[in-house]
Amino acid sequence: MEEQDDNKSNGKKVNIYYLLIGTIFILFFAVYIFTRPAIFDSFVLVESGTLGDAIGGITSPIIGLLGAILVYKSFEAQIEANKLQRKIMKNEIERSNALKDFNTLMDVFKQIKEDYNDLKYGESYGKSAIIAFRAHFEVDPNRFRKKSFYNDFTYHIQVFNLLIDRVENSMIESADKNMLNNLIVFFYKSKLRIHVRKFIKICISEKTLPGFTMRLKKLDEKIENIFIED
């Protein structure tokens, strides 16, 4: 599209140049013609004292036309400059917004990692806390859902779900989006996937906590569907 616009703009410039050259040629040609010896006596303008008026009358419209063309071209150039300026400003705003979104998403991802390490169950933290809670949860899911760890872990999963949706719908650069997706997938597969799938298996087996199960399954499916460029 931009290449077509450039071609059209170049074509217009060439046409204007031809017009200017043609106008100048006509101007000088007219002066030349009317200062040559006349073929017929009735065309001798010098003797009638009308040479200056004749040349002025002929060239004035041409000069006026030339001036009008130049004024038009100056306005046209200003319009094109304004369009270019608006386009540059729009691109700059889009890049600035994309960078802000990227930084925000990175902050959310970092917070998810910190929250994972801060998960606490008994005297255990992070991965060890999840393993310890899962061992008790498997015995009686409905009982251990009342533990604060259950709420913390559910919140952690929900934020992860929201982050994936936000990255997918963001307008950040494709390279930045691909990098974020790589980080998300790697973190999930290395830290959470085995626990998420075991929690899903427990809930389905015990036929309990459908809302919790749905969040876990949704997260696992989203991770599997993330497209990562090579």
Summary, kept brief:
The chain has 230 residues and is mainly alpha-helical. Helix content is 84%, strand content 2%.
Give the tags:
single chain; 230 residues; mainly alpha; two-stranded antiparallel ribbon; 8 helices; 84% helix; rod-shaped
Radius of gyration: 39 Å
First and last CA, distance: 28 Å
What composes the largest sheet? 2 strands, antiparallel
Tell how many strands the DSSP assignment holds.
2
Order of strands in the sheet with the most strands? 1-2
Determine the number of helices (DSSP H or I, runs of at least 4 residues). Answer: 8
SSE string, helix = H, strand = E?
A: HHHEEHHHHH
Shape call: rod-shaped
**What low-confidence regions span 5 or more consecutive residues with pLDDT below 50?**
none
Q: Strand percentage, roughly?
A: under 5%
Class per helix and strand makeup: mainly alpha
| Helix-residue proportion | over 70%
Q: Mean pLDDT score, rounded? A: 83
| Multimeric organization | single chain
